[in-house]
Amino acid sequence: MTKPLEELSTPSLLMDVTRVRRNAERMSALAIDSGVSLRPHIKTHKCVEVARISTEGHSGALTASTIAEIEAFAAHGFDDFTYAVPIVPAKLPRIIRLLTSGTKVNLLTDDPDMPAELDKAARTAGVELDVFLEVDCGYHRCGVEPGSKEALQTVRGISDASGVNFAGILTHAGHSYHGKSEEEIAGIARAERDVMCEFADGLRSGGIPVPVVSIGSTPTMTHVDHLEGIDEIRPGNYVFFDAFQATLGSCGFEDCAITVLASVVHRSFSNKKVIVDAGSIALSKDRGPVGLDGGCGYGRVLDLAGEETGLRVGSLSQEHGEIEVEDQDLLDKLKVGTKVRILANHSCLTAAQFDHYDVMEADSIVGRWEIHRGW
């Protein structure tokens, strides 16, 4: 049963499922054409139905940022995950429960002390743990410097442990989100690939097999020139994209698949502004691509049909979004109760503010898909 957008309460999270399918098909084609495995990241959407779309024609393997995501998706039939946050001992009991239930979970570490901890836990539980070494390819958040003493010590610790298997090397070029041009992002994409291929070659020449070389972010995977030497890619944001990605050049604005439906709750002719009922709780406070678009604000304001109004959400409080409206004719039209759609800067953070998507197709709501949150 379908219903029009006008009947939804606000704020609501709208998903254009036609765009989701189109975005997924493009990344799927890149993986197939490049001969690499696709293990999409679910942190962007946290939605079982979207994961099914993005893994169609592939193995069904996923990347996750929280154990709660893995538990929820495993309950819906997915059985192969990479937990893409460095593992700590306190989280191992939950991982082991997943493994003993038949769910595969790859772990990662960048600490030379962790292989011994992992080996002890694995042998005690009677399981084997598959562990990636996380490598820093320039982001400088987590990961070891390739070829460093710590990197080699950690790899050998994993390889020598009886309860732990060396799964390969993994990286994330998160600094690609800070690129100032498509050329700069393409350079980061090449470096991400080349750093990992060179490190893998060095390990192999030293007698250490490297089963999988895993890379990928949405900016790098939409700008990379080739993927020779890579086994697996793990982009996530691409299924939705957002205003940030469109400004970076990873996609067009017409590819962005989620918006927040909001209502005008206040209009001021003297201050030339309107207030909507979508604040930081609905949109998040991601400042977006301010280095490329200083006036990006907290989201682009679209009309109910999804067309640009030229307006931006300029400031946020918890449940209020403020929009300056200099055009008198436009201000006249934005009466209290008028619904608008806001294309947020960061779809991952925006989606995480809601518990479900209102699924939109041909300008009507055709479904309601759950968002699985938690740690």
Beta strand %: 15-25%
Radius of gyration: 22 Å
Give a count of the beta strands, DSSP E runs of length 2 or more.
18
Q: What's the helix-strand series?
A: EEHEHEHEHEHEHEHEHEHEEHEEEHEHEE
Per CATH, the superfamily of the largest domain is: Alanine racemase
Descriptive overview:
The protein is an alpha/beta fold and 375 residues long. It folds into two domains: 3-11 and 252-370, D-serine dehydratase-like domain (Lyase, Ornithine Decarboxylase, Chain A, domain 1), CATH 2.40.37.20; 17-240, Alanine racemase (TIM Barrel), CATH 3.20.20. The chain has helices at residues 17-34, 48-54, 67-74, 92-100, 114-125, 149-160, 182-205, 218-221, 243-248, 280-283, 328-333, 347-351; strands at 3-4, 12-16, 37-38, 62-64, 80-83, 104-109, 129-135, 164-171, 212-215, 232-233, 258-268, 273-276, 300-302, 308-316, 321-324, 339-343, 356-361, 364-370. Strand 17 (356-361) and strand 18 form a beta hairpin. The longest helix has 24 residues, at 182-205.
Descriptive labels:
elongated, 375 residues, TIM Barrel, 25% strand, Lyase, Ornithine Decarboxylase, Chain A, domain 1, single chain
Could you give the topology of this structure?
Layout: E1 3-4, E2 12-16, H1 17-34, E3 37-38, H2 48-54, E4 62-64, H3 67-74, E5 80-83, H4 92-100, E6 104-109, H5 114-125, E7 129-135, H6 149-160, E8 164-171, H7 182-205, E9 212-215, H8 218-221, E10 232-233, H9 243-248, E11 258-268, E12 273-276, H10 280-283, E13 300-302, E14 308-316, E15 321-324, H11 328-333, E16 339-343, H12 347-351, E17 356-361, E18 364-370
Parallel strand pairs: 2-17, 3-10, 4-5, 5-6, 6-7, 7-8, 8-9, 9-10
Antiparallel strand pairs: 1-18, 2-11, 11-12, 11-16, 12-15, 13-14, 13-16, 14-15, 17-18
